[in-house]
Amino acid sequence: MLSVLVEAGMLATLIYCIILKLIYYICIFSYYNANISHAPLNVVQQLDTHPQKKNQEVIIIVVSTDGSGNFTTIQAAIDSIPFRNKQPVEINIKEGFYREKILIPKTKNHITMIGITDNDETVIAWNSTASDVMYGGQKLQTINSATVAVEADYFIARNITFMNTAQAPRPGAVGGQAVALRISGDKAAFYGCRFLGHQDTLYDHRGRHFFKNCYIEGTVDFVFGNGRSFYEDVELHSDPNYGIPGSITAQKRDEMTIETGFVFVRCKIRGAGMVYLGRAWGNDSRVVFANTFMDKIVMPKGWDDWHIPASDKTVYYAQFNCTGEGASTMGRVEWARELTPEEAAPFITTKFINGESWLEKLPISSTWPSPLIP
User: Which residues carry out catalysis (predicted)?
Assistant: First the structure.
């Protein structure tokens, strides 16, 4: 009899906890909906949008450090957007240095962030590293070191500098990875943005992404992840790495059937020190450079297998029609590829990221005429 009473009491307690949790989530959901519905005047406006979004309301939010906008921090603006958002939201960020760590969760899609002046005048910066300790004693790890982490789909950024100000780690140091931006959502686009850091600057984590007229700076693996991304007219700037060659990319494709990879078209590789075009983070890592200028800082070997010789047979590292002192294929590793026009064709347009099905459908901003024009 006693055991039955105990079991009944435990069941009642469990039901009580579930009810409390449901009430909690209902309250949180209501709070965010109330927050956006009671936003300051002029936050919600009716704008002309993309033809496929005709008559759809666009939420306009202004952020300014001097208090002249709707919010003084970018995270506060993001927090004001409802969960499961389906409307285009445009966050116009006035000139300023925004020292904050930002998360755009996967429940808040269709956000566009625009620096309304030059990209070097709108800066978002933080200094987390992979070895930093969180509450509870656990380390952040690389994935949580990002100054800005985007987990939502249909994200757009224009004219913004994303920066991680942590010091450059010395070779062999553990936990020095410091991400400026992590993009984990699908169908994202970046125009005229800068990404500044040292090791692991841009975490191109997963999803399809488009980068146009951007600037990316770092020392080691400063474009890394398992995204399926197209970089066009981007400058890749390598900084000295304590006298040891750095690497531009570390792409993490682990299966040949997966369609991820990084493609760089009409880009420029410049900087100081010596740098590899990439190293094989994944067994089937895939990176292609096409019509790209490579300065003399590029190592003659071009690529590094991360001391795993077996990956020499499975990686896909290639270049096509590249120029500059660093583009010579004479000293390249024997498993690097020099593509013919026919072999390069699948890589040199945004069809590589299925851009025809989503890039042209991104919402037109109130301050920019087209998502395809920087």
Answer: 221
